[in-house]
Batch of 2 targets.
Target 1
Amino acid sequence: MNIAIITGASAGLGQSFFRSVCARHPDLEGIWLIARRRERLEAMAQGCPIPVTALSMDLTDPACYDALQERLTAAGVRVKMLINNAGLGELDNVIDSDWRTQSRMVDLNCRALTAVTTVVLPFMAAGSCIVNVSSIASFAPNARMTVYSSTKAYVSSFSKGLREELRGSGINVLAVCPGPMKTEFLEVANITGRSPMFKLLPYSDPDRVADRAVVLAGRGRGMYTPRLFFKFYRLLAKLLPHALIIKLCKT
Ligand SMILES: NC(=O)c1ccc[n+]([C@@H]2O[C@H](COP(=O)([O-])OP(=O)(O)OC[C@H]3O[C@@H](n4cnc5c(N)ncnc54)[C@H](OP(=O)(O)O)[C@@H]3O)[C@@H](O)[C@H]2O)c1
């Protein structure tokens, strides 16, 4: 049985990934959706021609990784696509913030993504692919989002390393690095109304970002940065010293 797994599927970009996977891979025999809000996941299953399994999991709870492994083993599935999308941000200086908030970001954006990938990989085969949701914040450190941008630098670096490890296996890894999108993320991260930079930047459409990422991952691409503006930023962040970029890109 060929399935796709999407984490953080109950909102924003995760819902967009769900729509794209349904449309582009009607041959799948199951889609497993992971997030904490079960009722949202169950609502998404309504009307979907592919059987959907709603897995209510808090991915910051280490117990869920063994639970996922057991379910995969019991179901005897092959994972054609893993989309590590669950993530969270926080706009604040580290000194003004609570350690729990900062640690939760590391737990979800880094540890959960690593653990889920490690658990799922043995259930993948040639032709499978992994999409890891990173961010333009991975290109250089962003003051006031220091921990968030550090976690996304990890996601991009992890994706590149894993892609190289898997070369020759037929399993591709793509890191997608979007700029801002109008999702719940902006409220959850306390960004709305508090960041002049977020008011200036161009926004991306989550449906377009997700759909393009699904297509490019299947074609073997390793990195995808939506919008020309941010492709240019990525280049600048490679060419210029980060000491300068940090001054220009304060959130
Ligand atoms: N929006 C942006 O501007 C932006 C820009 C660049 C990159 N990104 C990245 O895009 C990804 C998706 O973000 P989004 O914009 O769609 O944000 P969102 O609307 O806030 O969605 C976040 C998703 O993650 C899930 N989630 C949060 N904590 C979780 C936990 N402990 N366990 C399991 N699931 C959890 C949420 O579901 P539950 O609450 O139901 O658990 C939700 O489905 C993230 O990795 C984010 O860093 C976003």
Target 2
Amino acid sequence: MAGKIKNSIVIPTFNEKDNIGKLIEKLKKVFPEGDTEIIVVDENSPDGTADVVNSFSEKDKTVRCILNDGIPGLSPSIVKGFDSAEGEFLGCMDGDMQHDEKCIPDFFKLAEKEYDMVIGSRYVKGGGFAQKWNPVRKLISDMSAFVARIVLGINLKDPTSGCFVVRKKAYNDVRNVMNPTGFKIMLEIYFRLKNTCKDYKMTEAPLIFRNREAGESKLSSKVIFQCAKMLFDLRKQKKY
Ligand SMILES: Nc1nc2c(ncn2[C@@H]2O[C@H](COP(=O)(O)OP(=O)(O)O)[C@@H](O)[C@H]2O)c(=O)[nH]1
Ligand SMILES: [Mg+2]
């Protein structure tokens, strides 16, 4: 029987049947204590991703799959997952094995020790790429970081890593003003926390990023356009 849940890991998925089972098994190894729940928020994937997760849930009550039946998309799915999470600390990672699960326990430890938000970063010491990353993707990522700095004054080294932990209390402070569209919820939460008069403690911590082995990326030009629009919408709300 699982004890009290302290950490919640939310994993958004769309067509990740060949990755999600492997990832859950690996996460169970790096979080053996039973105080960490895994919530997969699936976009009604036609490939049966949810069935794979449900086969774990039958044996392990700390693993569950919920379907995103609201606004479609990555960010709304993560919000849905966070809303149903029991933990005091909320983590988010991709379901495609690109975020190295071995980095995640440190994010939770840092949050528990002192931080309101811990951002996985490939560009701090100890972080990086397990293999050479596609140069086009690297360019998109570098450009996004540059635009986030210019438009929103965000000085993160890696604002688009998509892998992070936030303290539920801090998340709840900004939950109701969030307008999550598209892909980059981590950036929105970070911006919203910075944009209040409270002094949240936030840091970047090393993240290793792997290349995708199975399935396909869902990043499209439509998604990139949505992200750019989000940055400019947020800019209008910038106070600090
Ligand atoms: N729930 C949900 N998950 C999504 C959606 N789009 C992508 N994902 C998942 O979000 C994660 C990151 O997406 P991915 O396509 O790998 O983006 P990339 O890493 O930027 O190429 C993966 O786990 C995807 O399965 C969506 O619309 N809804
Ligand atoms: Mg990916």
